[in-house]
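note to self — DONT lose this again. spent like an hour looking for the file last time. sequence + predicted structure for the chain T wanted, 641 res
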Amino acid sequence: AMATHKSLPPLPDGALDELASMLARNGLADTSYARTTTVIRNLLLAYPAQQSRLAASLERLCVSLGAEAANELSQGLPSRAAAVAVLRIMKTIRSILEKDPNPQEKILNHLLDLNGKLRMLWEALGTRIGKVEDEMGDETGLSSLLPKIPQALPLIEAYFLFGAVVANVSSAISPKEEPLQRAPSLPRVASLPRSGSARESLGGLQSSADEPTDPASLVQSEMTAFAHAHKRMLNALIQRTPHLLSQAFEPLLRLRGVVNFNNKRTHFQTRMRKLSMRPGQRPSSLRLNIRRQHVLQDSYHQLHLRTPQEMRGRMAVTFTGEEGVDAGGVTREWYSVLMRSLLDVNFSLFESSTDGTYQPSPNSAVNPDHLSFLRFAGLVVGKALCDGHLLECHFTRSFLKHLLGLPVSLDDVERFDQDLHKNLLWSLKNSIEGVLDLNFTAETDYFGSTSVVDLKPGGADIQVTDDNKADYVNLVAAHKLTHAIKDQLAAFQGGFHDMVPMEELKIFDEGELELMLCGLPEIDVEDWRRNSEYSGGYSAASQQIVWFWEAVGEMGQEDLARLLQFCTATSRVPLGGFSQLRGVSGPQKFSIAKALGDDNRLPASHTCFHSIDLPVYSSKEILRERLMFAITEGTQGFGFS
């Protein structure tokens, strides 16, 4: 290779400068830009000694264009040519450095020097965005103001892309432990962080006691502050162009509290759709024939040996002896009935906490195939998450954390067992010596038969004192939330993560995962009414429609959930509200159609299409009576009406 380099003719003077200047040419087509960067990379492969010379050319050009863009931002000018050129230069720098697996310290120093010279541009960008954000406070309003700062998107892309380049080069020179690695162990109670005591960076979380001192970390810290300060604008840009989260804005997903939940959800759903598609093949399908009275056994035997890719196929369910044709509604009903069976205490797979949420039961081994069934449960819940089907159950907060690989804490004990949490908290706040006679053991209950387990080796012989009680509390919490169900957790996680890789889940916290699985907890009647359609001669002003919404508005949440289940086969509201209801072929709003018949006829539903056939009742009282009868007697089973 060295001989080849020596045999090449020298580069003409100014050749690299000319190539670099092409990147800044106004109106340069994307194809021309791509060809230019390819030529630059190939030249550097042939003339590696010219890398520093090219870097100097790109730096001069970037600083000049940065000053031009900063001036345009300060004066509120609409031009974006300089901003686009800055972005292209940043992409070129990244492209060149990606080919160098062992960058030298001097390259990092050049990047840091360039960042200092561009500081005026980044500050002008932040100031201009701040002014726009002050004019309109929410993402919707901001989206309409984006044309006022056409430079925003390319410059923000350039900013975060540059930060990623600095981080990558810095890590290559001085490798560090992955900052976002999430261990499933329980943090020690005595050192649990208080809210706000951790500081984030674009690379992950950093302890407040470990403030960045090296220049590369300071760059990341500045960009993190920028992201938090301007997250409204960033979310407006992401909402308008979602694929940004797969490109320049990807580091923002590692910053808690920056990307809003709706944008995360859209990004996740896009990723799941890509996982379900195999190159060159049509999506597979899963056809299930289920006996309603044996839904768990039938579903298990038909699905538990399926591969993850097969499980990602489109589901079509038939309940034996029922006439329903599955266009989505029967599948939702299957999820509902199956989850009730999985959570049934008679199967002992799950146990209920004091707040009505569920997690795997430590006594599930009463069923010899319990781990296989729990892995199947993980597959089903993962399948529901992939497909956007909402589940009619809630899991404990600690269980959700385990699914995300997040550490659990003493606060999670409160959600699982309030009495235990109260006692543990009391022991931490008060002296226990001479009051409580405890050792490092815990009692377990196996269907009325109690036994004692050591919380640490020789725990039965170690007395709990004021000096070691924090360790005791930590071990009790870890036992209840983790160690007592470690095999069950591993089985469920195995199935769940086969469907939803951990890498895709890292963008969520446990509260967001619960929303992804269960939807919004409250039913907003006004939102429902606002996102409804009418057909067959009905309109929003029709007397029966007015009565319908008056009757619905008088319902409690339980009856509202029954009505929603009657119409859609699930009692949960989709994320984003009723505007996000989905039918067999995509978004599909709730609808009410005029039906023939007199006061004796009941309303009929078509769950696959989120619709109700509503007869022309003669009074509001009759409408309410017939509607209540329908939703209380007709929420389970399928047939043709």
